[in-house]
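Narrative progress, year one. The postdoctoral researcher (J.K.) led the effort to move from monomer predictions toward full complexes, under supervision of the PI. The following entry was the first complex the group processed end to end, covering 503 residues in total.
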Amino acid sequence: MQKRIVIPFGPQHPVLPEPIHLDLVLEDERVVDAIPSIGYLHRGLEKLVDKREFPEYVYVIERTCGICSFIHGLSYCQAVEEMMKIEVPERALFLRTIGSEYSRLHSHLLTLGCLADGMGFENLFMGFWRVRERVLNRMEESLGGRVIQGTCKVGGVRKDMDGEMLERMKAELDVLDKEMKEMTGVLLRDDAVKYRMKGIGVLPKKDAFELGAVGPTGRGSGVRIDLRERGYAAYGKIGFEPVLETAGDCYARTAVRCRELLLSTRIIRQCIGKIPDGPIETKVTGNPNGEYASRVEQPRGEAVHYAKGDGGRYLKRFRIRTPTFANIPSLVHMLKGYELADVPVIIMSIDPCISCTER
Amino acid sequence: MSYFKKSPWIIHYDGSSCNGCDIEVLACLTPMYDVERFGIVNTGNPKHADIFVITGSVNEQNIEVVKNIYHQMPNPKVVVAVGICATSGGVFRECYNVMGGVDKVLPVDVYVPGCAARPEAIIDGIVKAIGILEKKRKEMDEKG
């Protein structure tokens, strides 16, 4: 037997924007085991429900994560609305859907850029982030913030988009499509990129299902899991087909994200076409009583928000199960058997969001 | 900005921030804001860095990591606290695992406000930090 060595990876590491620590057990250059340890980012924001009234807690929950902030807010509002039996106006649901898809666009562009940076393709990193600024400008104009928006509230949304703005957004989507196709084309067709990603970090469909992989990590292995199909917000009125790949390697997961970029712009176009007129919020009276688990599809996969109230202004219990947390067992499984130099690419291919994971 | 002796390199560490400020720090480096044209590079190695950019507050577990990175940096060095969490704890100040601002552990030179801090504000903070860095360098030279 060869001599085993343990190499610490993180918490401060050039490819990681966020701290996670992995102890990599190596035999020569090959990873035989990976032991993750988390806790560098834990804040304990679920406990804050004791101190913030339920309409104010939206601001805290949006700050679970700066990348998927909008969808966290949406999911929390959805849980409270279901408990209180509030009918949210149709227009608000469409506005929430548009917001979700814009945040998916910015998240996917961000992660594809970071992936390119992780394997040393810095030019492409800059390219993706240039396109992303276009999305962020549009988000700032329509939702009210670049990364933290504060748009969703219990009973509807805070900000309306007028017809002129929607037209402008629609016109810009074509430019976005063109630029994104150019960038993803470079990423998916480049030989060096293929060499780094094809056949690396393979997660077969059976393992993905058993380990509970969600989001693009699961869909890259052919598991059909896309919560948008359940039709929350306005997704029920929109026709779309989830993106699936079957290879299960890093390349497949990246391809899923690249194709989802174009799916998101298609969904936004449909929303702009179908959005009805009307109010954007309903008046909220009373307090939440009961419990509800709200499930939404975040850029990284399924997130579950569990809320429990007892008729007071404060919720009794609140809990989030985030997509990256669900994907860590798959990540550990993927790392085994590959070389140390492949570790950054495999980690970036599940698109880890540590501040979601640790809350 | 032609007065500095060397290109100021930064190192970025995410304390317990929500990612919002982190991605804005990264956005500063990308084509829209592009601070690399001034020679400001984000490095992963503390031994190459002059400016320590920290986002998010400190907690029991990351306090050692933050101190470790700070002590590995060569003198003169400047600490920039980006975002309201790094300044005081922000919305999370009442959470059980948040000790408060970065100034509880390190001497902070520049505070950048905002939740999330905008790239323009971050660049402003870095420019202030460069001034302080030059001052510290001069003081070091005088002492010999």
